[in-house]
Write a structure and sequence with these properties.
Number of domains of chain B: 2
Structural class of chain A: alpha+beta
Number of helices of chain B: 1
Largest interface: A-B, 23 and 17 residues
Oligomer: heterodimer
Order of helices and strands of chain A: EEHEEHE
Order of helices and strands of chain B: EEEEHEEEEEEEEEEEEEE
Shape of chain A: globular
Strand content of chain A: 15-25%
Distance between the termini of chain B: 22 Å
Protein backbone atom coordinates (compact mmCIF):
# COMPACT_ATOMS: atom_id res chain seq x y z
CA UNK A 1 0.00 0.00 0.00
CA UNK A 2 1.68 3.27 -1.09
CA UNK A 3 2.01 6.04 1.44
CA UNK A 4 -0.16 9.02 0.55
CA UNK A 5 0.14 12.66 1.55
CA UNK A 6 -1.81 15.92 1.48
CA UNK A 7 -0.12 19.23 0.71
CA UNK A 8 -0.82 22.96 0.74
CA UNK A 9 -2.15 24.60 -2.40
CA UNK A 10 0.65 25.52 -4.75
CA UNK A 11 3.22 23.07 -3.43
CA UNK A 12 5.64 21.75 -6.05
CA UNK A 13 8.26 19.02 -6.05
CA UNK A 14 10.57 17.31 -8.58
CA UNK A 15 8.46 15.20 -10.90
CA UNK A 16 10.78 12.21 -11.17
CA UNK A 17 13.64 10.66 -9.28
CA UNK A 18 16.03 12.06 -11.86
CA UNK A 19 14.59 15.52 -11.27
CA UNK A 20 14.89 14.96 -7.53
CA UNK A 21 18.58 14.18 -7.91
CA UNK A 22 19.08 17.27 -10.04
CA UNK A 23 17.29 19.40 -7.42
CA UNK A 24 19.41 17.95 -4.67
CA UNK A 25 22.52 18.74 -6.68
CA UNK A 26 21.34 22.34 -7.04
CA UNK A 27 20.68 22.08 -10.76
CA UNK A 28 17.23 23.56 -10.35
CA UNK A 29 17.09 25.07 -13.80
CA UNK A 30 17.05 21.52 -15.21
CA UNK A 31 14.31 20.21 -12.93
CA UNK A 32 10.83 19.38 -14.16
CA UNK A 33 8.37 20.21 -11.40
CA UNK A 34 5.07 18.60 -10.49
CA UNK A 35 2.37 20.46 -8.61
CA UNK A 36 0.41 18.72 -5.89
CA UNK A 37 -3.35 19.07 -6.10
CA UNK A 38 -4.37 20.74 -2.85
CA UNK A 39 -6.46 18.69 -0.48
CA UNK A 40 -6.21 15.49 -2.51
CA UNK A 41 -4.23 12.52 -1.25
CA UNK A 42 -1.14 12.06 -3.36
CA UNK A 43 0.99 8.96 -3.54
CA UNK A 44 4.72 9.58 -3.46
CA UNK A 45 5.97 9.06 -7.03
CA UNK A 46 9.30 7.79 -5.66
CA UNK A 47 10.24 7.10 -2.04
CA UNK A 48 13.19 9.51 -1.92
CA UNK A 49 10.85 12.52 -2.00
CA UNK A 50 8.99 11.57 1.16
CA UNK A 51 11.54 13.05 3.53
CA UNK A 52 11.43 16.36 1.69
CA UNK A 53 7.64 16.33 1.71
CA UNK A 54 7.51 15.77 5.46
CA UNK A 55 10.09 18.49 6.07
CA UNK A 56 8.03 20.91 4.00
CA UNK A 57 4.65 20.45 5.60
CA UNK A 58 3.08 17.58 3.69
CA UNK A 59 0.84 15.53 5.99
CA UNK A 60 0.73 11.80 5.64
CA UNK A 61 -2.76 10.40 5.28
CA UNK A 62 -3.58 8.09 8.15
CA UNK A 63 -0.47 8.97 10.09
CA UNK A 64 -0.99 9.15 13.81
CA UNK A 65 0.49 12.01 15.79
CA UNK A 66 3.12 10.75 18.18
CA UNK A 67 5.02 12.25 21.07
CA UNK A 68 8.77 12.65 21.07
CA UNK A 69 9.00 9.17 22.54
CA UNK A 70 7.03 7.71 19.67
CA UNK A 71 3.89 7.18 21.74
CA UNK A 72 0.64 7.81 19.83
CA UNK A 73 -1.21 10.93 20.98
CA UNK A 74 -4.83 10.52 22.07
CA UNK B 1 30.94 39.92 1.45
CA UNK B 2 33.73 41.35 3.51
CA UNK B 3 33.34 44.91 2.29
CA UNK B 4 30.54 46.93 0.79
CA UNK B 5 30.89 50.26 -0.94
CA UNK B 6 28.76 52.69 -2.86
CA UNK B 7 28.85 50.63 -6.02
CA UNK B 8 27.23 47.71 -4.19
CA UNK B 9 24.19 49.76 -3.27
CA UNK B 10 22.24 48.97 -6.39
CA UNK B 11 18.91 50.61 -5.60
CA UNK B 12 17.21 52.75 -2.99
CA UNK B 13 13.50 52.38 -3.60
CA UNK B 14 11.18 54.89 -1.99
CA UNK B 15 7.86 53.24 -2.81
CA UNK B 16 8.13 53.09 -6.61
CA UNK B 17 10.96 55.58 -7.08
CA UNK B 18 14.64 54.67 -7.18
CA UNK B 19 16.58 57.54 -5.60
CA UNK B 20 19.95 55.80 -5.79
CA UNK B 21 20.45 57.28 -9.23
CA UNK B 22 20.56 60.81 -7.84
CA UNK B 23 22.31 60.42 -4.48
CA UNK B 24 25.83 59.51 -3.53
CA UNK B 25 25.41 58.50 0.09
CA UNK B 26 23.09 56.34 2.12
CA UNK B 27 23.54 55.75 5.82
CA UNK B 28 21.90 53.27 8.14
CA UNK B 29 22.84 53.89 11.73
CA UNK B 30 22.07 50.99 13.98
CA UNK B 31 21.90 50.32 17.67
CA UNK B 32 22.78 46.68 17.19
CA UNK B 33 25.88 45.41 18.92
CA UNK B 34 28.14 43.87 16.30
CA UNK B 35 31.31 42.01 17.16
CA UNK B 36 34.18 43.67 15.35
CA UNK B 37 37.25 41.84 16.54
CA UNK B 38 38.44 38.33 16.09
CA UNK B 39 41.55 36.62 17.37
CA UNK B 40 44.26 35.87 14.86
CA UNK B 41 43.56 32.73 12.96
CA UNK B 42 39.79 32.94 13.23
CA UNK B 43 37.35 33.90 10.53
CA UNK B 44 35.87 37.38 10.70
CA UNK B 45 32.13 37.49 10.84
CA UNK B 46 29.93 39.78 8.84
CA UNK B 47 29.23 42.83 10.93
CA UNK B 48 25.69 43.30 9.64
CA UNK B 49 23.05 41.34 11.52
CA UNK B 50 19.74 40.34 10.04
CA UNK B 51 16.31 40.85 11.49
CA UNK B 52 14.64 43.92 12.93
CA UNK B 53 17.14 46.39 14.30
CA UNK B 54 16.75 49.85 15.82
CA UNK B 55 18.03 52.05 13.03
CA UNK B 56 17.77 55.34 11.28
CA UNK B 57 18.10 55.86 7.55
CA UNK B 58 19.54 58.90 5.87
CA UNK B 59 19.83 59.47 2.16
CA UNK B 60 21.84 62.49 1.10
CA UNK B 61 24.30 63.87 -1.38
CA UNK B 62 21.72 64.97 -3.90
CA UNK B 63 23.51 65.26 -7.20
CA UNK B 64 23.29 67.79 -9.98
CA UNK B 65 21.14 66.88 -12.89
CA UNK B 66 18.32 65.28 -10.95
CA UNK B 67 14.79 65.65 -12.14
CA UNK B 68 12.32 67.62 -10.12
CA UNK B 69 9.73 64.92 -10.78
CA UNK B 70 11.63 62.51 -8.58
CA UNK B 71 11.82 65.03 -5.78
CA UNK B 72 8.13 65.70 -6.03
CA UNK B 73 7.44 62.02 -5.42
CA UNK B 74 9.08 62.22 -2.01
CA UNK B 75 6.12 63.67 -0.19
CA UNK B 76 5.39 63.51 3.50
CA UNK B 77 3.27 60.38 3.14
CA UNK B 78 4.75 57.29 4.81
CA UNK B 79 6.90 55.34 2.41
CA UNK B 80 8.14 51.79 2.07
CA UNK B 81 11.89 52.05 1.53
CA UNK B 82 14.13 49.22 0.39
CA UNK B 83 17.87 49.82 0.30
CA UNK B 84 19.71 47.14 -1.69
CA UNK B 85 23.07 47.85 -0.11
CA UNK B 86 24.37 44.36 -0.86
CA UNK B 87 23.69 44.55 -4.58
CA UNK B 88 20.83 43.57 -6.84
CA UNK B 89 21.50 39.85 -6.55
CA UNK B 90 19.73 36.93 -4.95
CA UNK B 91 20.61 36.55 -1.24
CA UNK B 92 22.24 39.98 -1.14
CA UNK B 93 21.48 42.02 1.95
CA UNK B 94 18.92 44.80 1.93
CA UNK B 95 17.39 47.08 4.53
CA UNK B 96 13.66 47.61 4.53
CA UNK B 97 11.86 50.45 6.28
CA UNK B 98 8.13 49.99 6.59
CA UNK B 99 7.09 53.53 7.45
CA UNK B 100 9.48 56.29 6.49
CA UNK B 101 8.89 60.00 6.06
CA UNK B 102 10.60 62.75 4.11
CA UNK B 103 10.98 65.23 6.93
CA UNK B 104 12.91 68.13 5.49
CA UNK B 105 15.10 69.65 2.86
CA UNK B 106 17.87 72.18 2.53
CA UNK B 107 18.26 74.63 -0.29
CA UNK B 108 21.77 75.99 -0.67
CA UNK B 109 22.26 79.27 -2.48
CA UNK B 110 25.75 80.45 -1.57
CA UNK B 111 28.92 80.26 -3.62
CA UNK B 112 29.97 76.87 -2.29
CA UNK B 113 26.55 75.28 -2.19
CA UNK B 114 24.91 76.64 -5.26
CA UNK B 115 21.34 75.68 -5.90
CA UNK B 116 21.41 72.36 -4.04
CA UNK B 117 18.37 70.66 -2.67
CA UNK B 118 18.72 67.94 -0.07
CA UNK B 119 15.70 66.03 1.12
CA UNK B 120 16.19 63.94 4.24
CA UNK B 121 14.55 60.58 4.80
CA UNK B 122 13.92 59.54 8.37
CA UNK B 123 12.22 56.37 9.54
CA UNK B 124 9.30 57.02 11.81
CA UNK B 125 9.56 53.82 13.78
CA UNK B 126 13.38 53.63 13.74
CA UNK B 127 13.32 49.97 12.81
CA UNK B 128 15.21 48.55 9.88
CA UNK B 129 14.40 45.09 8.65
CA UNK B 130 17.72 43.74 7.47
CA UNK B 131 17.11 40.83 5.17
CA UNK B 132 17.79 39.15 1.88
CA UNK B 133 17.08 39.98 -1.73
CA UNK B 134 14.70 37.24 -2.89
CA UNK B 135 13.67 38.62 -6.27
CA UNK B 136 16.23 41.06 -7.69
CA UNK B 137 14.84 44.19 -9.28
CA UNK B 138 13.98 43.47 -12.90
CA UNK B 139 10.98 43.15 -15.18
CA UNK B 140 9.03 39.91 -14.68
CA UNK B 141 6.71 38.94 -17.52
CA UNK B 142 5.10 35.53 -18.11
CA UNK B 143 3.75 34.02 -14.88
CA UNK B 144 6.34 31.94 -13.12
CA UNK B 145 8.49 31.58 -10.06
CA UNK B 146 12.09 31.95 -8.96
CA UNK B 147 12.43 28.51 -7.37
CA UNK B 148 15.46 27.73 -9.51
CA UNK B 149 17.24 30.92 -8.43
CA UNK B 150 16.27 30.80 -4.78
CA UNK B 151 17.66 32.94 -1.98
CA UNK B 152 19.40 31.33 0.96
CA UNK B 153 19.07 32.71 4.46
CA UNK B 154 21.68 32.29 7.12
CA UNK B 155 18.87 31.43 9.48
CA UNK B 156 16.99 28.14 9.40
CA UNK B 157 13.30 28.02 10.12
CA UNK B 158 12.86 31.56 11.41
CA UNK B 159 9.62 31.95 13.37
CA UNK B 160 8.29 35.02 11.53
CA UNK B 161 9.36 37.60 8.98
CA UNK B 162 8.49 40.61 6.88
CA UNK B 163 8.48 40.80 3.10
CA UNK B 164 9.01 44.00 1.09
CA UNK B 165 7.69 44.60 -2.42
CA UNK B 166 8.58 47.68 -4.46
CA UNK B 167 6.94 47.98 -7.87
CA UNK B 168 8.22 50.66 -10.23
CA UNK B 169 6.34 49.77 -13.42
CA UNK B 170 3.30 47.64 -14.20
CA UNK B 171 1.72 46.70 -17.50
CA UNK B 172 -1.49 44.76 -16.98
CA UNK B 173 -3.05 45.01 -20.43
CA UNK B 174 -6.30 43.01 -20.08
CA UNK B 175 -5.32 41.48 -16.75
CA UNK B 176 -6.69 43.12 -13.64
CA UNK B 177 -3.84 42.49 -11.18
CA UNK B 178 -0.63 40.68 -10.46
CA UNK B 179 -0.40 38.31 -7.49
CA UNK B 180 3.04 38.03 -5.92
CA UNK B 181 3.59 35.23 -3.42
CA UNK B 182 6.52 34.51 -1.11
CA UNK B 183 7.54 30.85 -1.30
CA UNK B 184 9.86 28.83 0.89
CA UNK B 185 11.49 25.46 1.29
CA UNK B 186 13.58 23.63 3.85
CA UNK B 187 15.70 21.92 1.19
CA UNK B 188 15.10 23.67 -2.19
CA UNK B 189 13.50 20.41 -3.34
CA UNK B 190 9.88 20.74 -2.29
CA UNK B 191 8.46 24.27 -2.41
CA UNK B 192 5.41 25.72 -0.70
CA UNK B 193 3.75 29.11 -0.99
CA UNK B 194 4.08 31.00 2.28
CA UNK B 195 1.97 34.17 1.98
CA UNK B 196 0.73 36.29 -0.92
CA UNK B 197 0.89 40.06 -1.07
CA UNK B 198 -2.43 41.77 -1.70
CA UNK B 199 -2.97 41.93 -5.45
CA UNK B 200 -0.84 44.53 -7.20
CA UNK B 201 -2.89 46.83 -9.41
CA UNK B 202 -0.61 49.84 -9.63
CA UNK B 203 2.98 50.91 -9.01
CA UNK B 204 3.92 51.43 -5.38
CA UNK B 205 5.11 49.35 -2.47
CA UNK B 206 3.80 47.00 0.16
CA UNK B 207 5.03 45.14 3.19
CA UNK B 208 3.74 41.74 4.18
CA UNK B 209 3.84 40.00 7.54
CA UNK B 210 5.08 36.42 7.32
CA UNK B 211 3.29 35.23 10.43
CA UNK B 212 4.42 31.64 10.52
CA UNK B 213 7.68 29.72 10.22
CA UNK B 214 9.89 30.89 7.35
CA UNK B 215 12.12 28.20 5.92
CA UNK B 216 15.75 28.66 4.88
CA UNK B 217 15.28 28.85 1.11
CA UNK B 218 13.12 31.59 -0.38
CA UNK B 219 11.62 32.36 -3.75
CA UNK B 220 8.61 34.13 -5.19
CA UNK B 221 5.94 33.36 -7.71
CA UNK B 222 3.89 35.81 -9.72
CA UNK B 223 0.75 35.27 -11.72
CA UNK B 224 -1.65 37.46 -13.62
CA UNK B 225 -5.29 37.79 -12.69
CA UNK B 226 -7.35 37.58 -15.87
CA UNK B 227 -6.28 36.44 -19.28
CA UNK B 228 -4.07 38.70 -21.34
CA UNK B 229 -0.67 38.86 -22.94
CA UNK B 230 2.33 41.13 -22.81
CA UNK B 231 2.04 41.81 -19.07
CA UNK B 232 5.06 43.01 -17.14
CA UNK B 233 5.89 43.96 -13.58
CA UNK B 234 9.16 45.65 -12.61
CA UNK B 235 9.65 44.79 -8.97
CA UNK B 236 11.92 43.97 -6.09
CA UNK B 237 11.07 41.51 -3.30
CA UNK B 238 13.10 41.11 -0.14
CA UNK B 239 12.48 39.16 3.05
CA UNK B 240 13.68 39.88 6.56
CA UNK B 241 13.16 37.35 9.34
CA UNK B 242 12.98 37.76 13.09
Amino acid sequence: MPRTFVSKAGAVFPATLADFKRAKAGELDKVKWAEAAPGKPLAAPYPEVIGSWLDNGFKEVGAKEVTGDGVPVG
Amino acid sequence: MAYLSGKDCAYVFVDSVDVAISNNEVGISSEAVCPKRRALGTVSKAAMLTGQIDSELTVKGWLDGITTAQLADLSNDPKVISVLFGGNAVSGLFAGFKTAYVVGSKVGMNDDDLDSYEPVLVTSDCKANIGYVVAPFTAYTTAGNTDSTYATMTETNAPIGTAFLNVTALTLNASTACTVTVRHSTDHITWNPHTAFPNVTTVGAQTLALASTVYKYLSISWLWVGASSGQSISMFVGVSVD
